[in-house]
Amino acid sequence: MGVKVGIIMGSQSDWATMREAAAMLDELGVEHETRIVSAHRTPDRLWDYGKTAVDRGLQVIIAGAGGAAHLPGMMASKTRVPVIGVPVQTRALSGVDSLYSILQMPRGFPVATMAIGAAGAANAGLMAAGILALQDAALAQRLDDWRAALSASIPEEPIDD
Ligand code: RP5
């Protein structure tokens, strides 16, 4: 079997955000692939990616897009592989356009929608790792360790800066 996580994005310009998902997966030792797949500019590529996702062994797809962000929802329409959507922050509408485009899916075709921007992309990596960890004890341990380290890094009292 090949990689289990696909990170797709609508444009090269989304990579600055989506690399946060890739970095998180790298940190947790989860192999992944990255592709530019645009719902509007490369619809055939989107179709092929969704159509072959199950057979290629993908178990989670992280999809980031901005503006009229149709990529995550269209991918969810094409494959039963769970899709985690990342709304990329936009200049015109601060990413609220992306958020609503990804979030408001019709009944039957869900997208697990993250927060707008870099935090959402990082959380998408964590969410994907959590899904894979259900069947992977070593990854589950790495994720538990990561979470414990984050908690341990938070001071109990604020300091003057
Ligand atoms: C969307 O349009 C992409 O996901 C990107 O967030 C946005 C702008 O794309 P570019 O014009 O920067 O290529 O499809």
TrEMBL record:
Keywords: Isomerase, Purine biosynthesis. GO terms for molecular function: 5-(carboxyamino)imidazole ribonucleotide mutase activity. The keyword Metal-binding does not apply. Substrate binds at residues 11, 14, 41. SUPFAM superfamilies: N5-CAIR mutase (phosphoribosylaminoimidazole carboxylase, PurE) (SSF52255). GO terms for biological process: 'de novo' IMP biosynthetic process. Transmembrane segments: none annotated. Pathway: Purine metabolism; IMP biosynthesis via de novo pathway; 5-amino-1-(5-phospho-D-ribosyl)imidazole-4-carboxylate from 5-amino-1-(5-phospho-D-ribosyl)imidazole (N5-CAIR route): step 2/2. It is an enzyme of class 5 (isomerase). It catalyses: 5-carboxyamino-1-(5-phospho-D-ribosyl)imidazole + H(+) = 5-amino-1-(5-phospho-D-ribosyl)imidazole-4-carboxylate. Belongs to the AIR carboxylase family. Class I subfamily. Catalyzes the conversion of N5-carboxyaminoimidazole ribonucleotide (N5-CAIR) to 4-carboxy-5-aminoimidazole ribonucleotide (CAIR). This is N5-carboxyaminoimidazole ribonucleotide mutase. It comes from Limimaricola soesokkakensis.
